[in-house]
Amino acid sequence: MPRRNDIKSILIIGSGPIVIGQACEFDYSGVQACKALKADGYKIILINSNPATIMTDPELADRTYIEPIDPDFIEKVIEKEKPDAVLPTLGGQTALNCAVSLWERGVFQKHKVKMIGANAEVIKKAENRKLFKEAMKKVGLDLPKSGEAHNYKEALAVVERIGFPIIIRPGFTLGGSGGGVAYNLDEFKKIANHGLEVSPISEILIEESVIGWKEYEMEVMRDLNDNVVIICSIENFDPMGVHTGDSITVAPAQTLTDKEYQRMRDASIAVIREIGVETGGSNIQFAINPEDGRMVVIEMNPRVSRSSALASKATGFPIAKMAAKLAVGYTLDEIPNDITKKTPACFEPTIDYCVVKIPRFTFEKFAGADTQLTTCMKSVGEAMSIGRTFKEALQKGLRSLEIKLFGFEGPKIDPTAHEIEQKLRYPGADRVLYIKAALQKELSIDQIFDLTKIDRWFLDNMKEIVEFEGKLKSLRGKKVSTQVLHAAKIMGFSDRQLAGFWQMSEEEIYKLRKEKNIMPHFKQVDTCAAEFEAYTPYYYSTYS
Amino acid sequence: MESKAVLALEDGTIFNGTSFGVSGEQTGEVVFNTSMTGYQEILTDPSYKGQIVAMTYPLIGNYGINLEDFESQEPHLSGFIVREASRIFSSWRANMSLDDFLKKHKIMGIEGIDTRALTLHIRSVGAMKGIISTEDLDPKSLVKKAKASLGLVGIDLVKEVTCKKIYEWNKQGKHRVVVLDCGAKHNIMRELAARDCHVIVVPASTSFKKILSLKPDGVMLSNGPGDPAAVVYVIETVKGLLGKVAIFGICLGHQMLGLALGGKSFKLKFGHRGANQPVMDLRTRKVEITSQNHGFCVDLETLNDKKVKLTHLNLNDQTLEGIRHLEFPAFSVQYHPEASAGPHDSKYLFDEFMELIKYATT
User: Fold this and answer.
1) Which CATH superfamily is domain B158-360 in?
2) Could you read off the pLDDT tens digit of each residue along chain B, which spans 362 residues?
3) In angstroms, what separates the C-alpha of B7 from chain A's closest C-alpha?
4) What ipTM is given for this predicted complex?
């Protein structure tokens, strides 16, 4: 299918100020879209209130409005610029919400502006819990038991039916803000009332707790010819109950058999088709009961999301750029793969490394904030790392957070058994440090699993790091073999960590490595696990 | 104590690693598979007979081995190469670790080698003969042995993996389908049974007369290992069946049909092995993401018969992926609609087979 020629100018809605849950990833997606569509000859009109973004640089769009992103201002821009189409799926939840209210006011209809990427019906179907639930039932997919409420009395009735613990989510808010988990009536009252207050439509969803279940995300793309591909699967290290934005996440999924992965793939395709996202990317979240494999759909974002940015970097497949091209009528088989050039973008990236994303918190800047991690996002940034193993990527990621960690380290002070148990049971920013402490105090994998519900595969990988650290420490003052030093680097230990183990300086470790010729290799991110030649790959360092 | 293992390629390239599974010495054609999931299905796929398979995804064994996801009774490959074999497994369905499974079936594994470097090498030079050993660690001696090994070209590997005698997969069904077993993956039979077929599996050497005497409504030409040109007797069988019964060929079965129709096969440089290969159905222009495992391919240019229509094309390298005969009820695809491992996009082909059976039997 060729590009649409009935459209000449496109309005792109940005995501505005940087807030928790909506940060520079939407600038990244907006820039990709502006570049792709402008290169294709479309006139780009951009509205974004945040001048500290790259997308508002003068050369990126034809017309840039640095104005508040609200329906009134967007309407004025539409009156002045008369765009043929609006692309609302690249500016996060803010852009999507604005587009829905403009459509409801009849502004797009009045000025004959076509919604591309996702139309208002689709957005409502994906975001309205009731419509979404109906749609999922229609395609035979399982969901957690739930009910919605518009006041506290209705909320109580729902909770009586489902029982504790339950999850409360306010409708139409950013990053799930205003939501939470309630284990008793007191907590419920507090969270439910707050949720009703912050939801712009005074609506909360009350849901069966799937806390502790395995959590997954699928990044899906669809084109006008109904080709659907999965770009990336992501497995959350932190199970359900911790917001994805606050979870350590890993790509690709690590602990699903092909049968289970394909079941999730089939479900993702069914969801994007039933919700009706005609073109572009969507993010679909699933939970799986670790005891019996029951799979439920959690939610769908009919737009480029925070995870799309991660998935793009993790695979080398530029989701936002492709979403923009699909929105103007191209099909996936017509677009070449950016990296391999000779093969088409209509395929599913396969990767030959492990990607770990670790959230960065700054609770010290939010005095009085509750530091426990819940379904409401609290992190302000993240580090992404690539390694050949989970162990290597985890250690690289942790030291990239710039919180004075040099790998998988424990807390600075020696915690008591009680402190460890509390820190594992109630997740906070430093839970990963206490997993280390727990492993060092020789808590079993099963004990740690019972407290955290973090999959045993992840925990055992961390145990391997701890065990190897023990071995390394025992070599203090002795001659270290090339094989052991290399193995330490392969497992992601930094020179700084090794220096600490052996009471040497970082420089001495570096020299030792140089003597033994243990230097990092740079391997490619090429979308295809080396099957085809890469023309514009990027690289990550690894010792294996 | 970890024991050393060496992988040597016939061109002299050496990779040092660590042994898992059993120790010993094995030769085979070294190939790579880019699937990120599905090692259990890959291990038990008879099409890997004679090959040493390297997984490009570095972390293998994470979810162990379970009782359900087998594609045949036992693994058939000569060796298994991974970057890191997980020391534990985590899955509610698993009952055994990858290491224990390989030990049980006496398969050699080698881990700790740079699988990306190996893949890059095979991609640029081509699939080649190789050897894994824990007994002989001398590179020169190993390369010599790799060179001297038989390889795949011109060798009939089908006879090694086909069933010994005729058996019924299930007891009844609306359509009677004979599966000509060249090393059939179990999911082919499962898909047929799920479509109300009475599935009868016959050895690859079964004559067309014997097959027709079973009065089938349709014949499935299964997948299988090795060089299609070496399996002359199956090609002859297919020639005998053409026009007399509805035929659906998968992978090697597709090559058998292609050769029976006068085509020629050639060896791909490094093959297609993975779960992300885009194939276009030329009838609808829609793209399906397919599971593939083949080192040989029917040459598009050699299919001169005007009655043979090209239906499917690989979008990565424009090679032939599917054909349909315009007169006889017969069609085939080079890829795996039964998936396992891989996406389910192409299952509609089994429905088309059912349609073809209905058309051919009325």
Assistant:
1) Class I glutamine amidotransferase (GATase) domain (3.40.50.880)
2) 579 999 999 999 999 999 999 999 999 999 999 999 999 999 999 999 999 999 999 999 999 999 999 999 999 999 999 999 999 999 999 999 999 999 999 999 999 999 999 999 999 999 999 999 999 999 999 999 999 999 999 999 999 999 999 999 999 999 999 999 999 999 999 999 999 999 999 999 999 999 999 999 999 999 999 999 999 999 999 999 999 999 999 999 999 999 999 999 999 999 999 999 999 999 999 999 999 999 999 998 999 888 999 999 999 999 999 999 999 999 999 999 999 999 999 999 999 999 999 999 98
3) 17
4) 0.97
pTM over 0.90: yes
d(CA B161, CA B186): 13
Paired tokens of A178: 């205003």
Q: CA-to-CA distance for B101 and A46, rounded, in angstroms?
A: 58
Q: Is A462 exposed, middle or buried (0-12, 13-18, 19+ CB in 10 A)?
A: buried
Q: Give the three-class secondary structure for B336.
A: coil
Does domain B4-148 fall under CATH 1.10.150.650? My reply is no
Q: Boundaries of CATH 3.40.50.880 in chain B?
A: 158-360
d(C-alpha B246, C-alpha B328), whole Å: 8
Give the number of A-B residue pairs with CB atoms closer than 8 Å: 145
Q: Please answer yes or no on whether B343 and A265 come within 8 Å at the CB atom.
A: yes
Classified as helix, coil or strand, B190 is helix
Neighboring chain A residues of B186 at a CB cutoff of 8 Å: none
Cβ B278–A389 below 8 Å, yes or no?
A: no
